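Slide 14.
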Amino acid sequence: SFFTQITGVDENTRTVSCKVDKNIDELVSAYNVENGTDYTALPANAYQLNGGDEAVLTFGPGTLYLSLKIVFIEENIAPLTDYLLPVKLLRGEGIDVDESICYIKVSNYSSLQKINLVKDDNNDIRTEYGSKSSSSEWNQWNLIDGDLSTIWHSRYKTGSHEYICHEKYGHSIDFHVGKDGALTTVMFEYVLRGDYDNGHPLEFTIYTCDERLDSGKYNWTGDESDWKELKKFTVEEDRLPNEQGGTFRSEILTAGQPFKWLRFSVTKGSDGKQVKAMNNTEQGFFSLAEICFWGK
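Slide 15: predicted structure.
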């Protein structure tokens, strides 16, 4: 539901009606230009507003707040496409309304399969170099245990633990997302730790490769040319969460070639500190409570 209100008055004594702006294509186009995105406007047959095609909100006497019910029609939403539905009310006769735009991102990922990463399989999640946790209690298996009270935490400088990170990849974790077959499409969701306002990733890049080569402890694994950048995420461009327990779900990402491994590479961590190698002065780190993937 989309909530709106009459503004500029303390009490409504009349019956007034407001329509929803139907210029969806124009609103999406303007959004794409402003934000450098490439969303497709949600087709008119893929949703209903208040049970019909023409949504009208009628504020009766004494009513300042109303909700607009939006129903999405899955069979008319193409799979693996990222749509945008802007919702904006137009000014009613003789009365002002909140004309800010609510942008709803819509994706049909029913064709994607959830990827089952297994804790007992040491080949499913790999961490090396600076991504080795400074505490055995904060290991990588906490990311898939279904328990939001446990966390993964990257390495940081404390006591006898030296702060180490990779010059390019910062702190990263590799996931064997294509263990049952190579993927070309992936989507992920992560949850931030809920017990402390600390370690939220504010800049990270997703890389993919077909095969991950092991070259020994604390040596970076795989020829760098094998890892292809899929997308870089930033708190400014992608509105990454920065609060305890926050959740982020990516759009559907499509790679140029099939892959079996995915690298979650964090280069800016807590408090906006950059992750820098060896002689860094900004000792950025990151933590997560849970992460999961869907792919095809």
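Speaker note: Helices lie at 24-35, 235-238.
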